[in-house]
Design a protein that fits this description.
This protein has helices at about 35, 60-85, 105-110, 140-145, and strands spanning about 5, 15, 95-100, 115, 125-130, 155, 160-165, 175, 180-185, 190, 200, 210-215, 220-230. By secondary structure, the protein is an alpha+beta fold.
Length: about 250
């Protein structure tokens, strides 16, 4: 046994490496080890970054560009305010009107078929209808009038109406068939007579129309913001059978 000491409780000799007495079990004082006595140095704490100071303003270049943008915006707003249409109807609602041309000339052209706008193949068409047409289904003047407020009347037997060529079924533009003298839908086969009334196919109604009038200068003017829903399938007044083979 290596040199040690005595237990303080019972006096027994104990080695220097013992931590307790083998006789009485008393804890013995342990000499500090030079290898463990040295405390581990605490790592230095990194300094916290200083809080960033708030920006006191935008760079001069950004201020100048922002001010220029606002100036241009105000100028454009003033330009639009000066040029926008202030025309309203009897209800105070804005009206977008389209001058389609001389009413008498359009009536002459429409005697052979619809007049498209724009010319050739447009999205609207001017049609000719007969205010004196007698129909067992109802009064033509009452249905397409009254008094030319919806569709102008030029003479007892000549009236004009403006229709939208988008099919009420799916929106495809219908085409005029010179042989059947009907409008025919290329997408799903809906058909409409020369007044735009439904004659067949999946469309739920006839072609939608626009309110129109003849102004004091004799021009046909359509109100594009005053669309009239097409007549129901069973509400057609023109009994027109196809006059030839269908195009679709």
């Amino acid at each position: 046994m290596d040199a040690g000491g005595q237990c303080g409780d019972c006096g027994r000799q104990v080695p220097s490496t013992a931590s307790f007495c083998g006789r009485c079990g008393a804890a013995l004082p342990v000499a500090p080890d030079s290898r463990t006595a040295t405390s581990t140095p605490t790592p230095a704490r990194a300094p916290e970054p200083a809080p960033s100071s708030p920006r006191r303003g935008l760079p001069r270049r950004q201020l100048l560009s922002g001010g220029a943008g606002l100036g241009v915006g105000f100028l454009l707003a003033g330009w639009w305010q000066d040029r926008r249409s202030e025309k309203v109807d009897e209800h105070g609602l804005p009206v977008a009107e389209l001058d389609l041309g001389d009413a008498e000339g359009l009536a002459a052209q429409a005697a052979d078929g619809p007049v498209f706008h724009p010319a050739g193949r447009g999205r609207i068409a001017v049609l000719r209808w007969e205010p004196d047409h007698a129909s067992p289904r109802g009064d033509v003047l009452e249905r397409y009038g009254p008094d030319g407020e919806d569709h102008p009347i030029l003479t007892d037997g000549v009236g004009l109406m403006v229709v939208a060529l988008a099919s009420p079924h799916c929106g495809c533009l219908v085409a005029w068939c010179d042989t059947s003298r009907w409008f025919e839908g290329p997408c799903h086969g809906s058909r409409f007579n020369r007044w735009g009334e439904w004659t067949g196919g999946p469309a739920p109604r006839g072609l939608d129309r626009y309110r129109s009038r003849v102004d004091p200068d004799g021009r046909l003017v359509a109100s594009l913001t005053r669309q009239i829903v097409g007549m129901h399938r069973e509400s057609g007044l023109l009994e027109q059978s196809p006059e030839g083979p269908a195009c679709v």
